Amino acid sequence: MNDEQDEEFRLDKWLWAARFFKTRGLAAKAIEGGKVDVNGDRAKRSRRLKPGDQLRVQMGPYQHIIMVNALSNRRGPASEAATLYEETIASREAREALALRMKAAQTSFQYDKGKPNKKERRTISKFKDRDA
Questions:
Q1: What is the spatial distance between Cα 53 and Cα 80, in angstroms, rounded to a whole number?
Q2: DSSP state, 10?
Q3: Would you say the C-alpha torsion 74, 77, 82, 83 has a positive or negative sign?
Q4: How far is Cα 121 from Cα 14, in angstroms, rounded to an integer?
Q5: 2 and 8 Cβ atoms separated by less than 8 Å
Q6: What are the pLDDT digits (tens) for 40-61?
Q7: What does the DSSP 8-state code read for residue 114?
Q8: What DSSP line would sit under 44-93, residue for residue?
Q9: Distance between CA atoms of residues 130 and 122, nearest Å
């Protein structure tokens, strides 16, 4: 295999082509930050992938556990990118459960009445001046 073919299936390029990250730079930052594991091991961005590899990708609070089905270094439409991998059922269920919990937590939060009016701002200003 020549050097050009070795570069084709790098982890950062594949994550970008599979549309997990918007740019290769963001994919590289995630890999270097330990947000991506390949077969349970921390990987470098130049790690070569092969079909059958298992990836754990942490994106915000969500964790995706996926199996690599195909390799590509070309970023195509989302329908094409979805064929490159298959997410495990347990991962999908855990992600959906977390999304429901987060949505329920947001609805229970009550905002205050809003920003302070003129009188309240004067009171806050006097309080701040008193401490200084």
A1: 19
A2: B
A3: negative
A4: 53
A5: no
A6: 999 998 899 999 999 999 999 9
A7: -
A8: -TTPBP-TT-EEEEEETTEEEEEEE-----S---HHHHGGGEEE-HHHHH
A9: 12
Q: What is the pTM of this model?
A: 0.72
Position 2 pLDDT exceeds 50:
no
Q: How does the average pLDDT of the chain come out, rounded? A: 87
* 24-42 tens-digit pLDDT: 999 999 999 999 999 999 9
Of 82, 85, 75, residue with least CA distance to 49:
85
Residue 84: Cβ-neighbour burial (10 angstroms; 0-12, 13-18, 19+): buried
Given the structure tokens 């270097």, which residue do they identify? 32
Residue in the block written with tokens 């590509």: 72
Confidence of residue 106 (pLDDT cuts 50, 70, 90): confident
